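User: Reviewer 2 asked us to show a designed sequence for the structure in our supplementary figure. I'm pasting the structure tokens here. Could you produce the per-position amino acids so we can include them in the response letter?
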């Protein structure tokens, strides 16, 4: 057979995860919490099941959940999304991203992808006949050069994908970044796919610059978010996307034949859980404490600690320890030191090696402590 995705291998999350298991390593690679979600939320799902919400949800999702999301976005980002026509509940952000790309990208369309990038964007573009066009963030500082970004736009550019807070670097886009994007896209028909799955995991009193805050971006954007990140339930695979009616209408044409609808009892549970704003407003403090704990424990180590403004990933620069390629160093750390991380080169353009590894700190302090003890010895 002719592969549609000839250069795609098993994802780094699977391959590193398997290696971590084999060597019984502390696993700070794939991003997921090692602690339970709030039992209040779990009780709500059980009750939803007992109360009979065990059949298909409406195609776009439970209307009460969509109304609650609309209210949240209005309150946080001052943008109005009509729950009937402009919000869809998805099976996590991965499905939302694939569905959005499938809905809008056709053969020969160019899509601007900022590298390093979350690994699902590119195969989704290529599977739909699109052409990824890369813009690389500067090594180790991970900033966008908007002049370079602008120079990549052509008459074939159909979509640009942005991600803030950013996986894997932990950087965030500023208001000035968003204004630059807004200006560059003005008078074009380019669609923005804005991956905001870490919207509530942001530190140091920074403000999440959702595209929803910027009218001239919101009117051309599909925004994806994920309850997996926000409520420590990555295994539930539930999230949502929002966008103006014309875009959402096209999105749903694909969504309905992709999954049709998603897990119904969790939607009922999340509706009432989300009404308590504290459930998501507490996240910056919660995760900042973990970031600060991990970073403090590493202060005496040979690693250079790169700034982390959001997400639950800490980048560590190991260039004072070895000049080894990041993939081989990450493998050696698993096999010889029993600690797993993600090498950044796998997300970079041409596998640029920044000598940087990504560590997930969505873990209990005992695990972060054990991890730092290992890392401090290197
Ligand atoms: N985008 C980014 C940047 C992510 O880090 C993730 C989760 N790893 C996703 C999308 C996918 O989210 P979900 O688990 O809801 O599919
Ligand atoms: N978002 C997670 C991460 O970046 C991984 C999700 C996945 O395994 N696809 O670690």
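Assistant: Here is a per-position design you can include in the supplement:
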């Amino acid at each position: 057979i002719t592969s549609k995705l000839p250069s795609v291998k098993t994802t780094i999350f699977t391959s590193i995860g398997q290696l971590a298991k084999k060597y019984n390593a502390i696993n700070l690679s794939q991003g997921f919490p090692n602690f339970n979600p709030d039992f209040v939320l779990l009780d709500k799902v059980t009750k939803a099941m007992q109360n009979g919400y065990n059949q298909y949800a409406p195609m776009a999702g439970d209307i009460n959940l969509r109304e609650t999301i609309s209210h949240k976005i209005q309150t946080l980002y001052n943008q109005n999304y009509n729950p009937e026509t402009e919000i869809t509940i998805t099976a996590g952000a991965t499905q939302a991203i694939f569905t959005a790309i499938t809905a809008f990208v056709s053969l020969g369309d160019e899509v601007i992808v900022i590298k390093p990038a979350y690994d699902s964007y590119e195969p989704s573009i290529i599977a739909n006949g699109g052409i990824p066009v890369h813009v690389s963030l500067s090594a180790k500082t991970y900033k966008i050069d908007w002049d370079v970004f602008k120079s990549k736009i052509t008459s074939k550019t159909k979509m640009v994908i942005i991600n803030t807070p950013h996986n894997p670097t932990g950087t965030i886009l500023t208001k000035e970044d968003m204004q630059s994007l807004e200006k560059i896209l003005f008078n074009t028909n380019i669609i923005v796919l804005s991956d905001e799955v870490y919207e509530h995991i942001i530190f140091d009193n920074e403000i999440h610059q959702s595209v929803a805050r910027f009218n001239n971006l919101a009117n051309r954007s599909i925004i994806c978010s994920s309850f997996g990140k926000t409520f420590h339930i990555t295994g539930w695979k539930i999230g949502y996307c929002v966008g103006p009616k014309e875009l959402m209408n096209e999105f749903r044409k694909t969504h309905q034949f992709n999954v049709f609808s998603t897990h119904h009892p969790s939607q009922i549970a999340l509706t009432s859980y989300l009404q308590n704003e504290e459930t998501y407003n507490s996240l910056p403090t919660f995760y900042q404490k973990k970031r600060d704990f991990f970073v403090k424990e590493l202060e005496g180590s040979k690693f250079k600690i790169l700034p982390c403004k959001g997400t639950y990933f800490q980048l560590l620069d190991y260039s004072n320890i070895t000049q080894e390629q990041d993939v081989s160093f990450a493998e050696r750390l698993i096999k010889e030191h029993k600690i797993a991380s993600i090498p950044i080169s796998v997300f970079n353009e041409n596998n640029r090696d920044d000598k940087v590894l990504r560590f997930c700190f969505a873990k209990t302090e005992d695990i972060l402590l054990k991890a730092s003890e290992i890392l401090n010895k290197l």
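For the response letter, you might also mention the following. The chain has two domains: 12-30+283-376, 53-279. Residues 294 and 368 are 6 Å apart (CA to CA).
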